[in-house]
Amino acid sequence: MTRRISMFTALFMLILLVSALPVSAATAFTRYLGMGLTDYTESGHVWQKDLNNNFTAMDAYLGGLTAEISSFSSQIPITSFTYGMSLLGQRIADPTVATDQTIAVTTNSLAYIISAASGSALDLRLPPGTYLISNNYTIPASVRVSMDQGAVFSIASGKTLTINGPFNAGLCGVFSGSGSVSFGAGSVKEVYPQWFTAGGSAAILAAVNSQPSGGIVHCIPGTYTITPATIIMSTNNTELRLDDGVVLDNSASGDTDYSIKITGNHCSITGTGNGTGQVLCPANFRAPTFPPATVTDLNKAVIWNTGQDTVLRNFTLYNIPFVGLHNLGGARLLSDGVKYLGNWTAYTFASGYSHSGAYVDGGEDNEFRNNFFYGCAQGIGSDGFGGGDNNRLRVVNNVFSKVGNHCVYLDTLADLEMYNNKGYLVGSLAAVTGSGHKITSNYVFTDPYANAGGVSQSNIGLRNASFCQVSNNYLTGTATGGDEISIENLANNIDLVSNIVDGNKIYLTGGSMATAIKVGTPLPAAPAPQISTTWSKNNRVINNDINVEACSSVTGIIRYYATAADQVIAPVVLNNRMSLSLAFTGVNLQFARDAIIKNNLYFNSGLYASSTPMTAYKFDTVHDSEVEGNEVVTDNSTASTADDPSHIVLNGFVELATGAVTPSAVTHHNRFINNRIASGVTGGSLASITLIAGNGSTISGLAATGDSLTPSTATSFAPHHGHVFHLTGTGRNFNPSASYVWPVGYAVDLYNDNTIGGGAFTYNSSAATSHTVAPGKHGMFNFSGSDWSGSQVD
Fold first, then answer.
1. Residues 34, 40, 45, 46: what is their CA dihedral angle, to the nearest 10 degrees?
2. Nearest-angstrom CA–CA distance, 129 and 601
3. Sign of the dihedral through C-alpha 379, 350, 343, 303
């Protein structure tokens, strides 16, 4: 306004200046401007072209000042004028015309003035009043329309007013009636719902539909009452722009249907400022069922999208009743900086997984980044209702807080990228199906309060997975009953191939879990049958740091599992660190061949009160595998006086077979090379180093320190062929197991390490031919096929 007034003033100052000049000076100045008439003393006939040249030259010199004056004049209230007259270059329409404004023969009607212009540029001004549009009518691009406050087009039902030229109006109602408005391309920069007298969601819908080529619908601060299933963004390239302080209020209607539906392509909902523009959902919402009965049930999402290339950015979905966003088949959707806020206190998480911030059911190449998910059963979820595969989904830099089940739960998926996300007080990070996923550099703090439904689940679960990578994640908090990282199949005949679990840190301070890292078929859960005929090939668990305190476990720290012999092929467990304070199996390998178990550390502080032996490395039905450079260490030196050091009862490297199968038939030809087992506390009990040796397995370079091997009295054990065992314990009896078939010629070399205050021990004490070994002496014994022979040697 200030600029326009100053230029308007400048024009009059210029006129005064020129008129005050001497005639000769004025003539020179006008010639300098290039005017056709340059001499004030000139008289006679004035040519129209010369007059036009004068005005053209003046306008060019003043930088388009005449156009500025014309725009300024439209803001001057008109209180006294004649309809149809010209005022500062504007023509004034007559709202008092009783008939339709689209009839050109009616004097001073809208159509009359436009028709009289014959296609020339026209600046048309509409003073206060109602302008009846009873027929379809188009205002051409040559006409500029300016609406005074109080001027209203009343458009009849079924009729359309098309405005192709520039259009100016304030933030007040200028369109009424049940007809429609259509703005041509470039006629407006943005459309305001305030222009439509219908108000609420009807006004927003009218604004959306008024731009057939797409455009911006700008909601200024205020509350807009939303009627469910009303706002449909069906036009391509439409943006719904929400200023800070906008509230789209659906609370009075309940969650009977969607608040906003997007079916057009390249559409967006964008919040300005700091993103506090809100879509407000019902406060009294129903509890959903699981699974949802129909796809229609999911259509009760706040935002329902089927369009392609949709962008949601920088606004808040508040008090989500069921689903915040339902993406049904929309590809290349981007959700950036959206807050998905559920009602934490009102939702019972046991009622199902489908209460999600966002529900992605089909559509490829979608992305969620910089969003905040709070108080939902799931952050991003899907139950596969037929929208299609969710391939190449990216989940980046999001924050999940108090998400009761999974931050991400998706079916029928390939090539998920999930990195740099943070989860606080959540049930788990991810449960996804498919192959080619990369889950890296995420931080998760789990807590059982978040998992109010009591469902045991994996923190990171990959189902039916191949060629996936889980790396550099930090998983901490309280275990929620499942596996921390699980790669498993959920159906028969699905291979798990070439997955990598690398460089993750797992630090748990309570709760319970099945395993820290598991690859293979899940354990059977009655009454469901156990999954069978599944192969696990070339999977790698490497460089992980696992620290478990005050947390109970079922099956161990790192576990490869299948259901039949030779189904786990070439697994790798390399450079992992396992630090424990309770009774855990370390590495549990089952039904495997050609495994590499190398350079892992198993450390147990023994702070527990149980005499049940633990097993550091357990190999069940395993053959042709290599176990090299691993270390087993026990040390309960920090135990309280209430703890009994003898409760450290540890099986080191153990071979056995499932069921009643003869171990030598299924567990054989494994190589134990340069491994170390040590007890850091005198009086600790290393129950055995190897138990039930397989046929043809070998041990070399085993270093046993501390208490070495101290089995209980009359323990049956099976030391490995070809290695010297250092034994301690006064008055102990050491008996080879009678329940296994020993190979003929199997040799045992036992050394009595009771050289200070110890006594002799008896080998095979339960048999008729027992053997005594004195302190500091070796006992060499062989199996003849029916009995053990041998004697003490120096």
1. 40
2. 86
3. positive
